[in-house]
Write a structure and sequence with these properties.
Radius of gyration: 18 Å
Largest sheet: none
Shape: globular
Length: 236
């Protein structure tokens, strides 16, 4: 019987460099950010949600680019299990895209946020309780460490915003990484400037961020970025 990652120590997971330990650490930080977002309002809440996005989307992007292909190779049930999580990721991308259209303290934003939180927590449990323990049974600690390094390298160079049109699988998501990462991380910096500078500079930063968002929306629809998609997560 498999044991949930939540019940295992770092040593049991293969050490701090193992992909399993890295995943669990991100999940702990995710829970902390959710609680912080729920306890704040206004600009502080917006800042926390930005930090949460910078955790969630690179994490998921690295899973889809590096980790899920490995699971489909090594775990007999991997195809169906990774597809279920890709479908969750797709829903989260779509909901976050809608979330960005509303004021951070509006009722619409709060309602969407609660749906997102439920999906995020479901996603964590699916990964920690079902999928990743199966990978743990199939791969050696040394292989899990190597996979952890590959996952971390991808996570550090991945988009930080929702992109529901981009494929959830290679090759589309891999091709999308470079241009969307540059645009997303540029928007992150501009949005921080906008929130911290309620002057003309803040307005300029906000306008530039919106312009980058439009560019990203165009790039998302470039055909190579949508290839490899499973029909159930295809939004082209």
């Amino acid at each position: 019987m498999t044991q949930s990652l939540a019940e295992q120590t770092v040593a049991q997971l293969g050490g701090s460099q193992s992909v399993l330990a890295r995943q669990k650490l991100d999940h702990i930080e995710l829970d902390r950010l959710i609680e912080s977002a729920d306890a704040t309002t206004g600009k502080e809440r917006a800042e926390i949600l930005t930090r949460l996005c910078r955790l969630v989307f690179p994490h998921a992007f690295a899973e889809e680019s590096v980790l899920w292909p490995a699971i489909r190779r090594w775990v007999p049930e991997g195809e169906q299990l990774t597809l279920e999580i890709e479908q969750e990721h797709q829903q989260i991308n779509e909901l976050f895209t809608e979330l960005e259209k509303h004021d951070v303290d509006s009722p619409e934003h709060r309602a969407l946020w609660q749906r997102i939180v439920a999906l995020l927590r479901e996603d964590v449990r699916d990964e920690e309780d079902r999928l990743l323990p199966m990978l743990q049974q199939r791969m050696s600690p040394r292989a899990l460490v190597a996979l952890g390094w590959a996952w971390e390298a991808t996570r550090r160079t991945s988009p930080t915003r929702p992109h529901p049109v981009v494929a959830r699988r290679p090759p589309g998501n891999v091709v999308a990484a470079a241009p969307l990462t540059v645009l997303d991380r540029g928007r992150d910096r501009l949005d921080r400037m906008s929130r911290r500078s309620p002057t003309q500079l803040g307005g300029v930063s906000s306008s530039l961020s919106a312009a980058l968002a439009r560019v990203a929306g165009i790039i998302e629809h470039v055909p190579p970025l949508t290839r490899g998609e499973h029909p159930s997560t295809d939004r082209t």
